[in-house]
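User: Run a structure prediction on this.
Assistant: Running it now.
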Amino acid sequence: MSALLATGDRSRDQGLRIRGLTAAEHRTQLATHADASFLQYPSWAGVKDGWASETVGWHGDGGELAGSALILYRQFPGTRKYFAYIPEGPVADWADPGIDRWLRPLVTHLRAAGAFAVRIGPSPAYRRWDTARLKAATGPGRTVGDVLASEVDPLGAAVADRLRARGWRRCGGDGEDGDTDAQPRYVFRVPLAGRTPDDLWAGLNQEWRRNIRRAGKAGVRVVTGSAAELPEFHRLLRITEERDGFRLGRSLAYYERQYAALNAEQPGRMKLLLAVHEGEILAAHTMISTGRRVWYQTGASADHRREVRPSNALQWHMMCEAQAQGAEVYDMRGVSSTLDPDDRPFGLLRWKFGTGGQVVETLGEWETSMGGAANTALYRAFQAYLAHR
């Protein structure tokens, strides 16, 4: 933590104050929130090259630790000001109607740290759609938002209203994809709680079951890789980006930092799973585990021998491993909101449909400036940069 950012701030508001946490204190607090995102663990700071960081906690009058946040800081070029980012956090009691008890000390702390604006990612979900409902609604120009949700989370709706009432802005507005969000607004999740491997198998569609059997008959083996296989994973990722028309923009060094940082904090937190056929790696997927959640983060596959279905074999292995270790959710991360079969991104959503999970609209990311003419001007310049990059 740089001297500039180590403010020692102990802002108070209705019994809650903020102070810095050690990594050990932070991990202890996260252990009481088994659904916390891996992006809020101290190790994530080691992944984000070019960002300063600190971990802070909200404390009650009795000293009890009520919430925490990993805060990332990016300096605005040519200034001594910072953009503050709390990815998929803070880890707080979002059901608390007294949201000002959390937000006011946070803003005060960040202003003292030199931030001109902050972006947060509240954890409550907003809406959910079952696969069957969305599959029935596909068509030209259709989007997920056109379909009546299977479930609307009242907590998510309440948190959104509370943030708006306090001047926070939802990144990208209420549009479909939240294009300015750093983390995906729409994700695909497979519920695991209370389900057996047989239940998971029954939840797959016929195409997925057929492809998994085909991979087995063809001799596809799923093995756990190591850092030594990350260059091959990255090579396959570049092939996948070219084939499927997207660009993550992540270097090999990024994945090497991620693998080292996450596994140094907890061995096995990040795994590289490989689908091997006739001695060749045909697909490689990364898997991250914390608490009661498991994430499929990034997948890559070769252009050839796709008929042996290595990616289906990998995903089935990962789902079963997540279930075996007691996870309640298998999160397949981001999907597009399009339901138009002619739109290229729909292919990934259609593929994930086969697992029988749900599309979940998160609350997305929210921003506010720190107030004052200079901070507001920097925030507007930052927004303009994001809009045109």
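Residues 92 and 222 are 38 Å apart (CA to CA).
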